[in-house]
Design a protein that fits this description.
Elements lengths: L2 E3 L4 H4 L14 H10 L4 E4 L5 E7 L8 E3 L8 E6 L8 E7 L8 E8 H6 L8 E9 L9 H9 L12 H13 E5 L1
Parallel strand pairs: 1-8, 6-9
Antiparallel strand pairs: 2-3, 3-7, 4-9, 5-6, 7-8
Amino acid sequence: MSIVLTEFARPRLFPRTPRANTIQDCSAEQFVQHLNTHAPFKELDGYAPFCKLHVYENWTSTRCLTVPITAANQHQLRSGYEARSRDELPVLVRWFEGVESPVANYLVVILYSAEQLAKEGTGIAADWGIVGCIYTAGPEEVPMAPITMMRNALGVEEGGSGVPLDREAYARAVAFWEANANWRG
């Protein structure tokens, strides 16, 4: 099985200007090489048949992606409208500023099959393409953000995957994201 980094994921995981809330201590090329030469700690099914999650023990100093919202830190929550790419519509997001999370124990790499990426207009020369990575304390997936589920349901033309909304998964995601938020360094 071969894995490559998609152009969608590259600026989010390895931005030109390094940020504290992205992958640390390795280049994009070193990251992909590690995934292609080391077996994952475990493999999980993703939200659709074309999506797999490979869980790796964190070999970097990358910090957890999310922080629990508490009475002591909720004043540090910020929000704004952002798009993940020039082609997508901006959506409301929120994040912490001035909060630092602990070093992650696991990196959960989100992979899409070459066939799905081709449907979305991204051809790759590999079996799987990295579309994201979640940095976590435990070897499980953090629920997809509700807005990402909605975007996926809107279809490929709006930056999604075309997978219909699953109301139960959406409710679980809302419960998680009401109590947690991403952070920015």
